[in-house]
Design a protein that fits this description.
The chain folds into 2 domains: 54 residues; 72 residues, no CATH class. 63% of the residues lie in helices and 9% in strands. 2% of the residues are buried. The N terminus is likely disordered.
Length: 162
């Protein structure tokens, strides 16, 4: 809170005009800019102070804050990935040319592995929108492909990309 009081005093002194110097308008304009900037600094300082009060040691508190910020950034990336996936599987039109590896057994009767293959076209918008039944069929194929790809990445020790 000491930092906040000193910032408030700085704002007051920055906005004080000196009578008769002809620079009052310029000073006031600059003071408003400085005041906005100082408010942002004060907000950040207050957040840090509050965290230090709660978490204790400044270095430890800052390390925890950095971890929290990194976690938020990862969450934002995950959210964007999820939105992209949902947009992709909800394309207005999807046309599959062919696919392989999606049945429980391969053509020779062997249990299926994580192998999947498909060829398709996707439209963000189209005059002939998919029926609910067709959409569900394609969503199941695409989700099956994604699930098999995840299993493959884990099995080949490439899960770091997930």
């Amino acid at each position: 809170m000491k930092m906040q009081r000193s910032l408030q005093e700085l704002i007051i002194s920055a906005t004080a005009a000196t009578p008769g110097d002809g620079q009052n308008g310029i000073r006031l304009n600059n003071a408003w800019k400085a005041q906005r900037e100082l408010r942002e600094v004060a907000k950040a300082a207050t957040i840090v102070e509050d965290c230090v009060d709660v978490l204790g040691d400044t270095k430890e508190a800052l390390a925890k804050l950095e971890t929290a910020v990194d976690s938020l950034k990862a969450s934002e990336r995950d959210l964007l990935d999820a939105r992209r996936w949902r947009a992709f599987i909800n394309s207005d039109r999807i046309k599959f040319f062919g696919h392989a590896g999606f049945s429980k057994v391969d053509p020779n009767g062997h249990p299926q592995t994580n192998y999947r293959h498909f060829g398709a076209e996707f439209w963000t918008h189209h005059s002939h929108v998919l029926t609910d039944e067709d959409r569900q069929y394609y969503v199941n194929l695409l989700t099956g492909y994604a699930d098999a790809a995840i299993e493959h990445l884990i099995a080949t020790e490439k899960s770091h990309v997930l």
